[in-house]
Amino acid sequence: MSNTEHFSAIDYSAFPNAEGHFGPYGGRFVSETLIYALDELQSIYFNLKDDPGFQAEFDKDMAHYVGRPSPLYLAERWTRELGGAQIYLKREDLNHTGAHKVNNTIGQALLAKFTGKTRVIAETGAGQHGVATATVAARLGLKCRVYMGAEDVKRQALNVYRMKLLGAEVFPVTSGSRTLKDAMNEAMRDWATNVDDTFYIIGTVAGPHPYPQLVRDFQSIIGREARRQCLEQAGRLPDALVACVGGGSNAIGLFHPFLTDESVKMYGVEAGGLGIETGKHAAPLNKGIPGVLHGNRTYLMEDENGQIIETHSVSAGLDYPGVGPEHSWLKDIGRVNYVAINDDEALAAFRKITKTEGIMPALESSHALAYVEKLAPTMSKDQIIIANLSGRGDKDILTVAGLDGITV
Amino acid sequence: MSRISQHLSQAKTAGKKILVAYVVNGDPYPQATLPTLHALVEQGVDVIELGVPFSDPMAEGPVIQKGHERALEHHISLRGTLEIVKQFRATNNITPIVLMGYANPVERFGYAEFAKAAAEAGVDGLLTVDLPPEEVVVLKGELDAHGLDNIFLLAPTTTLERAQKIAAYASGFLYYVSLKGVTGAGHLDVNAVKEKLAGFGQLTDLPVCVGFGIKDPETAKAVAVLADGVVVGSVLVEKMGSMADKSANEIAAAVGDIVGSIRVAIDSI
């Protein structure tokens, strides 16, 4: 299957299988208490996903609440500067709440509504998913608690306050490495305890089946729109797609509708942190091995004893030792290339795009843009790259200012 | 017949309730574990459940999470845990030991390698919290090949239909999680346990032990009346954590006292 001629022959919609497996990855590695809740979620989702009424409600919210379709924008000045492929930006930063995360929280909140649960919980790293969850909870009048690593609470103070204004309770997690993975552990514990009245809105394409599938399905609106917009605006399909990968929801959302398009190359950009060679990074697909964490089998960053190790990235949203299981599978079959961009390269891209295009990208998205800086000049001027600008950078201004030694 | 089945059927014949005790290997420091295991046995524990430290113990409450963190500070992992079992077996060849932990350290060890090494070390069974029957098939083959029991959890949310499937995979005993929540939680409802166990009891000949939230002799007794046995964990781990600056013998004695009082309570049924 590693022969690229076979990529269009794969029926990607057949993954995951009924047990939630993408090849050897995915699955349902949770304690017994949660199996019932996952079965319930799966049956509700499978009943609703092709239901015209459900889809219409989702589409209506996407249009009138989120503001979709998000633009596909040709970054002409940046393209000229790099002198290679034409660069289009998929503007998920223009969504309500400022990132792609809301596509998924709207979808899951609709599911929560159908289950009749009155409380939602979420884990968050950078705070974007927490804000997107708090937002839909406010709109539907649901109680909301967001688990956030104590480290992240410090470095994303703005989003913490935003969630509180929206009526959510932000719960700082002080166990383990005090980051996203620990927030996810704590959310799982909460869910096991309050499974009767609580819906767990997972923010990425990881976790136990059916989460990787349903989050992918909700986020695939990104790629469906981008495909249509590219055909409309450029008259042809793109040659390359680029997106950052933490858990990987914005990337899978962009990639999935293009998977059978043989000619479209795909690049998932992981956080190289201080450099892959230093060990201080968050790039399991580049430098990890398969293992089991948070309910699924996937590539992980771990030590020789199978203990999960601490990750590093300047971007809280990418600071996660695992990755969605579908990405692990797409790596193994060779459909997507997974590369890494270091902190300093991402920060340089943040500044560059801000000054060149007047768009301030999130530090997460800046990883994808930094890879575009390398890729575009190697391609010809008639070729097209679509990069996912998954979120806006307002939340990161304090981080960038801090690195500049400035107190805002 | 496995050491677990043999031991538990003897207890049943004698009309005794089964007492299972959980401690984390290497907690609060590595030298404390071995004397503690022996003290547990002296005070009447039937099965030792030895926690394998993991960086992300998803099903544990704060008390046992801290136990894992303390052990990890001393770099105790799965290999070190097999080593302790080997040392324990040097003087005790009777008491069954179940390793309780999470899938990833076993995955990293390698299923076949692990099953072989665990059997050689004198381990009797494995309870992997995040390996439900659907995901356990390959590992179960290896455990079976080495005569190791596969212990599974049943939960308040487990349907009878599913319990039947789990029982078919299980050997040794079944572990009923008394409440919706994490280890050491404080909302155990004896009546709810009673109702659920009545259903499960019809499905299997395996002993059913109840854990999560059993903190004192009174609760242990109330629950033991309904089941074949009880599991205590958090109350022991909490004690051990509070004695990190004490000697191994002092820790062992204190933990022994707690299980001793629980033994007395469940023997009075």
From TrEMBL, chain A:
Q: Which key words tag this protein in UniProt?
A: Amino-acid biosynthesis, Aromatic amino acid biosynthesis, Lyase, Pyridoxal phosphate, Tryptophan biosynthesis
EC top class, in one word? lyase
Q: Which reaction does it catalyse?
A: (1S,2R)-1-C-(indol-3-yl)glycerol 3-phosphate + L-serine = D-glyceraldehyde 3-phosphate + L-tryptophan + H2O
To which pathway does this protein belong? Amino-acid biosynthesis; L-tryptophan biosynthesis; L-tryptophan from chorismate: step 5/5
Q: Which cofactor does it need?
A: pyridoxal 5'-phosphate
What is the E.C. number?
4.2.1.20
Molecular function terms, GO-annotated? tryptophan synthase activity
PROSITE patterns documented for this protein? TRP_SYNTHASE_BETA
- List residues of the Tryptophan synthase beta chain-like PALP domain: 67-391
What's the domain of life for this entry?
Bacteria
Residues bearing PTM N6-(pyridoxal phosphate)lysine: K101
Cross-referenced InterPro entries? Trp_synth_b_CS (IPR006653), Trp_synth_beta (IPR006654), Trp_synth_beta/beta-like (IPR023026), TrpB-like_PALP (IPR001926), TrpB-like_PALP_sf (IPR036052)
NCBIfam families per UniProt? trpB (TIGR00263)
Report the family membership. Answer: Belongs to the TrpB family.
Query: Which PANTHER family does the protein's record reference?
Result: TRYPTOPHAN SYNTHASE (PTHR48077:SF3), TRYPTOPHAN SYNTHASE-RELATED (PTHR48077)
The UniProt function text for this chain reads:
The beta subunit is responsible for the synthesis of L-tryptophan from indole and L-serine.
- What's the subunit arrangement here? Tetramer of two alpha and two beta chains.
Q: What is the official name of this protein in its record?
A: Tryptophan synthase beta chain
From TrEMBL, chain B:
* SUPFAM superfamilies hit by this protein: Ribulose-phoshate binding barrel (SSF51366)
Q: Which InterPro entries match?
A: Aldolase_TIM (IPR013785), RibuloseP-bd_barrel (IPR011060), Trp_synthase_alpha_AS (IPR018204), Trp_synthase_suA (IPR002028)
Out of the domains of life, which is the source? Bacteria
- Look at the named UniProt entry and state the broad enzyme category this protein falls under: lyase
Listed pathway(s)? Amino-acid biosynthesis; L-tryptophan biosynthesis; L-tryptophan from chorismate: step 5/5
Does Zinc-finger show up as a keyword for this record?
A: no
Q: What does this protein do?
A: The alpha subunit is responsible for the aldol cleavage of indoleglycerol phosphate to indole and glyceraldehyde 3-phosphate.
Homology family: Belongs to the TrpA family.
> This protein is called what?
Tryptophan synthase alpha chain
